[in-house]
Amino acid sequence: MKYNKTVMTKLINEHRELHDELKRIKAEMGLEKNLAIKALYHSAVADNGRYMQDYQDLERRQ
Q: For residue range 28-44, what is the model confidence (pLDDT) as tens digits?
């Protein structure tokens, strides 16, 4: 499974808790949006993360 910004953005838009986490990452770490999205991918999706199945489903629909 590879990181795809478009799929990750759709996932964030579908899950309010991911949206809130993205805002928190940007604020706490001072990251720009693209880097914060990538960080969120690695913490919530990659390596059997909580949202891995939802991410894969979106990836298949694309």
A: 999 999 999 999 999 99
Half-sphere exposure of 25 (CA within 13 A, CB side): 20
CA 56/CA 1 separation, integer angstroms: 8
How far lies 47's CA from each of 5, 27, 55, in Å? 17, 25, 12
Which backbone phi and psi does 59 adopt, to 5 degrees?
-65, -40
Q: Is the pTM above the cut of 0.90? A: yes
> What one-character DSSP code corresponds to residue 50?
T
> What are the residue boundaries of the structural domains of the chain, listed by start?
5-61
- Tokens 């991410």, located at residue: 55
Give the DSSP per-residue string, 35-47: HHHHHHHHHHTTT
